[in-house]
Amino acid sequence: MVTRLDILLSWLGLLFYVWQGLALRQRIFRMLPPTQPTSITIKGSGGAKQQPLRILVIGDSTVVGVGVDNFDHSIAGWLPRILVKALDKSVYVKPHGNNSATSAQIRDFVVPHIEREPFDYISLNIGTNDAKNFHSGNRFCRDFGTLIYALKSRFPGAIIIWPGVTDLAHIPALPFPLNKILSVRSRIMSRNGKILCEERGALAPKSKWKPTLDNFSDDGFHASSKGYKEWAEGIAEIIVELEENRTSERRSHKVRIH
User: Fold this and answer.
1) Under a CB-based contact definition with an 8 Å cutoff, are residues 112 and 76 in contact?
2) What is the C-alpha separation between 190 and 206, in angstroms, rounded?
3) Per-residue H/E/C for the chain
4) What is the separation of C-alpha 133 from the centre of its chain, rounded to a whole number of angstroms?
């Protein structure tokens, strides 16, 4: 929950944000993303005849795997392996991300250049940089809302899943009071984003990701291998539930026909 007092205090803390933010940029440990494959396919027991589940993973540094040395330990790396075990079917994942990207940058410079493919799901991981860059709630509504429209227009058959924005109060790399100021901004993004997802046909389930120290990498900002795995497990849990519902609906339809 974000109150008007929270919002007012965050704007009053803008000077602290600039001062501490600039100092933090000078000393924070910067990690490079690992080598990213163009796509990942893991086959299930059905083999080549089986149609794979097709997933687009798109967003910021979480998608390119900043924080780990091996892309297999990123969200897009863990997700297909978890889903193959859970669903016993082939999974195809296409990662498209950019370090430090905001909603508007993904909308304008990434989505238009992704080849049109029949994706079943889109895992959208965005919003942290909008909060970190102190974007207003109205600006985020415009940028994130039109990003959803762009994705739905380009990939109309895909279900979009957005897990929200991690509360930046829990980021180890952020000192006080910067973490408290950015906490308000991140909660504004999460609140507004969930409303927009509901209005525009995307899913915004509550994230079960825990901001424990071992879920963060050495830079204290990005996720570790364990953190990315936990993140991917949360997304996979939603996809598995949706796939099971689809299977049940298909079976019910066949019964009604007969």
Assistant:
1) no
2) 10
3) CCCHHHHHHHHHCHHHHHHHHHHHHHHCCCCCCCCCCCCEEECCCCHHHCCCEEEEEEECHHHHCCCCCCHHHCHHHHHHHHHHHHHCCCEEEEEEECCCCCHHHHHHHHHHHCCCCCCCEEEEECCHHHHHCCCCHHHHHHHHHHHHHHHHHHCCCCEEECCCCCCHHHCCCCCCCHHHHHHHHHHHHHHHHHHHHHHHCCECCCCCCCCCHHHECCCCCCECHHHHHHHHHHHHHHHHHHHHHHHHHHHHHHHHHC
4) 17
What pLDDT is attached to residue 166? 94
- The pTM score is 0.90
The answer on pLDDT for 28 being more than 60 is yes
Contact 190, 165 (CB under 8 A): yes
Cβ neighbour number for residue 101 with a 10 Å cutoff: 24
Contacts of 7 by beta carbon, 8 Å cutoff, 6+ apart: 137, 184, 188
Report the 10 Å Cβ neighbour count for 154. 17
Q: Is pLDDT of 255 > 80?
A: no
Phi first, then psi, for residue 128 (nearest 5°) are -65, -45
Half-sphere exposure of 39 (CA within 13 A, CB side): 15
- Cβ count within 10 A of residue 138: 9
Of 28-37, 107-116, 136-145, 146-155, where does mean pLDDT reach its minimum?
28-37
For domain 4-257, give the CATH number.
Answer: 3.40.50.1110
Count of residues in the chain: 258
For the chain, which residues make up each domain, given as ranges? 4-257
